[in-house]
Amino acid sequence: MGRRQTQISRSIVTAIHGEEPKPKNAINRIIRSIRTFFYIYGLILVKYRPELFQKLRDNVWNIIDSEYHSSFETDHDLRAMGDMGYSGSTFFNTTDDRYIIKSVPRVFEHSFFRDDLLEPYISHMESNPDSLLVRITDFLAWSYKSLGGILGFAPTYHLVMENLLHGQSEYSDWETFDLKPNSYFFPERDIAGGRLASQATKSKLADKFDDKMLLSREDADRFFARLEKDTELLAHYNAVDYSLMLVRIPRTTQLTAPSDPFRDPPTWRTGIPSQDNKYVFRATILDFFWAKHKVHAKMMTLLIKAWNLVDRQGPMSITTTPDEYRTRFLDMCQEIVAVRENRNEESEAVS
């Protein structure tokens, strides 16, 4: 890793372990504030509302605290991951593959989670242990203003989340799909037939899953019931543009069960087997931080409405209404599922 990634990584690990010493008197606090103001990459991070996430880890997900902290080894840096989208986020992976750390650099996103969605999210996860919303185990925030954070050289907020790819070997044939409703207007794809955007840019758009998950009726019904509950919460708090991360694992692959930090029975996090016995599927809902009531979202909505006066393309996934996005998202999830009542019967598409 480069110097920037190394220093960000160490800031995250220090925050998880709570190792940053606190100044004992006012003079030392002032000196420290002045010194840290000139930090560029290694910002001072702390856990935000740690008691809330501790409750989830202890009482809902049954994560052993010593094992959680051991995933963030102080003797090893986190592993930097590649560019994974438009948001400008920095991604890291713990060395044991149990957790992903995603930075949330855009103010309208981290302020929405911090100020609007955090407590409802905690309550929802407590009441719905089988929720498909991604499990967020910590939220890290900068505790001292620094030039690097002000100028955007280093992210000031980070989410620590479950890694749905835990147990994957380095050269596995697992497939991942980041799914959103594709019927929306995507300028990179839809203006001038996509000729104005590079292939690298278009590759960051939502994936397509041109297949079906062949499920039992019971698994399908539970899947849709969870989606209904989770998206109801997101719509209530004005979230749009979230996605379904789907992982398809061939049954020939050996899953490494001990790497699962959540100790769940077979679920959408550990893997639901398909009825044709060919695959195991994992799924979770990601990226629910774009809220329609934030100023940035309002400006984008006005911009797209103005564009539609000239070229009627309809809304984008970030400018539609929360209820309308929820409807299309649920329809998309219905479309990728087919039901087989038992392993000897023909499958039927879910209508």
From TrEMBL:
An annotated GO cellular component: plasma membrane
Coiled coil residues, start to end: none
UniProt cross-references to Pfam families, sorted A to Z: PIP5K (PF01504)
Species this chain originates from: Exophiala bonariae
Protein name, entry field: PIPK domain-containing protein
GO biological process, one term: phosphatidylinositol phosphate biosynthetic process
GO MF term list: 1-phosphatidylinositol-4-phosphate 5-kinase activity; ATP binding
Gene3D superfamilies in the cross-refs: 2-Layer Sandwich, Phosphatidylinositol Phosphate Kinase II Beta
Record keywords, A-Z: ATP-binding, Kinase, Nucleotide-binding, Transferase
The UniProt record lists the keyword rRNA processing: no
Record-linked InterPro entries: PInositol-4-P-4/5-kinase_C_sf, PInositol-4-P-4/5-kinase_core, PInositol-4-P-5-kinase_N, PInositol-4/5-P-5/4-kinase
Keyword Metal-binding on entry: no
Domain (PIPK) ranges: 1-337
